[in-house]
Each structure stands twice: as C-alpha cells, then as structure tokens.
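Predict fold of MBL fold metallo-hydrolase; 251 aa.
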Amino acid sequence: MNSVDIQLIRNATLKLNYGGKTLLVDPMLGEKNSMMSFVVPDQNLNPTVDLPFTKEEVIEGTDAMLLTHAHPDHIDPTAIELLNKDLPVFSQDTEEQMLKDAGFTQVTPITTSATFDGIEIERTGGKHGPEEVLDALGQVSGFVLRKSDYPTIYIIGDCLLDDEITENIKRINPDIIITNSGGAIFMGQARILMDESETVKVAQLAPNAKVIATHIESLDHCQVTRTSLTAAAAEASVEVIIPADGEVISF
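Predicted 3D structure, encoded as tokens:
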C-alpha cells in the first residue's frame, strides 16, 4: 500500500499528501487573535495560537481544497484572500454559492461523491451538536478519501459521535480516522464537538484504524487539551495520535 502524509497545521486545518496530490482541508490561516471570541463578546481572541509557519508555506503546492463547512474556524477571510481562486474546491452544496461569490471558479458541491484525479471523495453527514443548536450551527460534512492501493481516510468533521457516525465507521472501515476532538461549547451550554470520551469511543469502534485527533488548543471555546485527551486514551488503553501543530504523520 502506498504511503500518505497527514500534516496538522492548526485547529482543523490539514495538509494531506494523498494519491499523488496535496489536499488542503479547512484552511483557517489568520494570525493569532484575528478572529472573534466564541466566549467573550466583542473581543478578538481567536485563534489562540499562531500558525506553526507562514500562511504562504501552508498553501504552497496545494492541488485542491476540501471544505467541511464554512464556519470561520474552518475557512477565514485570510484563507479566502490568499488562496488561488482557480484552485479546485470540494464542499457541501450549502457552501457552493458562498465560495463562488468569494471568487473561486472551480467549485464542486458534493451531495454523495466526486472524483479528483483518481481520488474518490465521498461526503458524509453528521450533527454539529445536539438538536437544539442545529438550526443555529447549520449543516456540516465529513469526507472519505479512497484510491486504489492507498489507505482509506475518514475525516469525520465537526460532529458529535452518534449513531450516524458509528454506522459510518462500520460501513467505511477506514484505515485512518481524523476526529475533531476539541469538546467545544456553544453559547456556554451545549457541547458541539467530540470530547475525550467520544474520541476514545471512536478508537474502540475501529481498533484496526489509526485515529488522529485535531481541533484542539486553538480556539477559546474548546475544552479538551492534548494532555487531557492523552490521559483519557491511556486510561482506556487505546491509541489516539494527537499531533502538535505543524507535525506530519506518515503511514
């Protein structure tokens, strides 16, 4: 099987070398404290950390972008300004018009699946929180990447672990699972991302997969830390890979 490189940039921003292509996922490229707080009104406190290297280095060599949804911690004004507008972009259909209005000329909305240079990209669903906040937070997506002789990657996206995600894991049988595990709290009340216990459960559901946890220690409404998740995984005797910003994981 051919190798893949998965680099965590920051938060949910990933750079994947997969199937001979470089894919940029959910680019949030603004400087530290360039975006509104999700906790304190009228203050710019996000992201809480800087990029591990320059934004120009982040996007260098990108062949296509995958966007799970258009919340500002997944695509921000800096990314929209900086990215080549002729870059192929794959997103859910609810983001199509926004991306075109931003100037992107090669937007492919995915309802079920699409193909990019031999890479199959399947869109998966999920819930970005409990029922009472779904109208406010809107639709989100995950993506499955497949190519012959390459590991299958399931990017779950901003989703809680529920029956839909559990069934996806069983159906897809991925080699690599990427979770957004920050345990973010919406409006001080509802949890809208996986936390330590749900991330551990993902690893238990897929004991043969490599689980990579992201969306941690970058935003002020995220409660999970790398330390707390490491401890939870150790207590449950499961392996969860928790990369540092800028770290490359190769399989």
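The longest strand covers residues 5-10.
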